Amino acid sequence: MRTDDQPSGPGAAAPYRFAEQHTPPPAQRVSEVAQTTFEHVYEVDPRLMEEHVLQQVFPNWDTLRIMRSRHDHLAWMHRHFAEKVVTGSEILAEIDRETATPPPL
Amino acid sequence: MTITEPTGPIGTAPFTTAPLSDERLTALVAALRPVLGDDQILLAKTDRYNRARVPAPFPVHRWSERVPDVVVMPTSTEQVAAVVRIANELRIPVVPRDGGTGLTDGAVPHRRGIVVDVKKMNQIHELDLVNRTVTVGTGISMLKLNERLAEHGLFYPDDPASYPCSLVGGRIGTSGWSLIGSRYGHTRDLVLSFDHVLPTGDVLHVGDGIGQKISKSSSGYQLKHLFMGHQGTLGIATRATLKLFPKPEAELSPFWAFDNYEDAHACTGALARAGVATFAGAVLFDEHKVAYLRRDDEAYIPQPTDVRALVCAVMYGYEDEVRAGGRRLFRIAKEHGARYLGDEISEGDWAARHDRYATPLHGRTKDGQVIPMSWHCEDAAVNFSNVPAVSRAWHEILADLRRKTDVFDDWGMFAYTSSNTGVDYLTEIDVGIWEQRLDDVAWAAWVKAKRDIAAVALAHGGSMSACHGSCREGEVDLVPQELGRGFDVMLDVKRSLDPNNIMNPGKYLLDRAYGRDTTDENR
Questions:
Q1: What are phi and psi of B178, to 5 degrees?
Q2: Which helix (H) or strand (E) holds B262?
Q3: pTM, to two decimals
Q4: Could you say which of B249, B327, B351 has the minimum Cβ distance to residue A74?
Q5: Which residues in chain A are contacts of B354 at CB distance < 8 A?
Q6: β-pairing, B309-317 with B279-285?
Q7: What is the value of ipTM here, to two decimals?
Q8: Which of B326, B346, B354 faces A77 most closely, judged by CB atoms?
Q9: Which of B179, B180, B351 is nearest to A79 (CA)?
Q10: How far is B344 from chain A (nearest CA, A)?
Q11: pLDDT digit string (tens) for B345-367?
């Protein structure tokens, strides 16, 4: 499935550059045990994967594919169980409006 | 105590875990050939090993003890009946495998023999749009069934955590529990009737009364429940008629955060007791679960540290009624100090609940290093008021295990509503198990912990399983205690329906019906 952040036009056929694919964005620490690279992509702190399970190197396209596949899967599940999703934020906004606007006397 | 050993065709199936001798295997295959096609009789090592495994962790060095001698893949009730008749005549164990997704070893061939894999019986035989029923082979999965039903705007709402891979037959064999059962009922409520092959090979149609599409009858004994939840020890369901609902127009699944467990627990109870018609379930996450998720789940890693407990509620129905019910539940949550976690987590996490078997897992040693772990989950049915006490006691059991070894990791607890009144909860503790390091000592410690976990549920007036069943080593020891005189009735029923103990032998301590106590064998 094509998404907006994939190259289109002439760039879509750009050559595969190993160095590019194996250089993820700089990791940002998000907790004592985890870090993030791409948006929505979290990884275990590499220092915690040195003895029993070694961290694997993924090219960027594969990291993003796994993340997007997960999102596709969750979206599919929603469609499978119901025709539409009512968001909690809508309901919360209605409740907050009720609180802010007391009924007329 | 009388010990009955088989002597030829008279007597019970052997109480042995040894493979069939070449002579007996040859005789078995020869008897099966007139009944099944060559491609329905599987003898290859890969075919048999693939059907020895279930999700519940078991010591790797002992996997080979539980490999069947033969796998058969029937396509009809008649073929299943013929296979069972042959097994009964030859006194060879026969074990139904309906997906093999259960967590209490129901599909594990403890005594080897024949595994009956039902997944070729996956047809939709009849869709009755007027009476809102569907009749299916028990080898169909709910996901595949619902894809077909959606074309007609219909829905079969049996929703286990193994939704994409579990089968209708397995749901009958375990009397399954559904995530959205508080709205639609559980498997026992959704299955109207089914064809069932008894251990002698006779075929019985079981439902309310004799009806195929009757949801309530007062005629005769209520046999439907007897032939559900027996873990394959009383026969094999082959064809089932199911109750259907309109596919929901709308879903709402808010997740709320709390800074303490007590408020979250109180809120869960209030949501469940509210009597909202579209309420399909609520889930309480305790502090250990939140700590585990913050460690390893991308949705929760960024959450602030004052998020210590979570509650989710889910509603299904027409959009207008979901919105109205949603407003009521949001007001209740607000009164209990809940903070809404946002749409992304609420929708993403709920969608993931339908498919927990697909989640790759890892745990931690005590010094924090990542280790590969398999997931196991111990469950119980517990009244709302007792959930906190049971949770505390279960975590103490896990903490004791963890002090001794890195093989086990406490992944926290969920409590799910079982009904629309909030009376009782499927209470589960998730445990990471380093299966490759599960040696005999660690296994013995785990079996003891399982027994202790079950004992806590009973001590608090609960049942030791709301969902999985209770025939695995450890908890099974307490089944006679939980059922009392009822366990003797189980033995009587088993002996009466399965005179030769060929149907899934070695489960639920039912060998006692044949004068043999095998509780501690192979431990």
A1: -115, 140
A2: helix B261-273
A3: 0.93
A4: B351
A5: 77, 81
A6: antiparallel
A7: 0.93
A8: B354
A9: B351
A10: 9
A11: 999 999 999 988 766 688 999 99
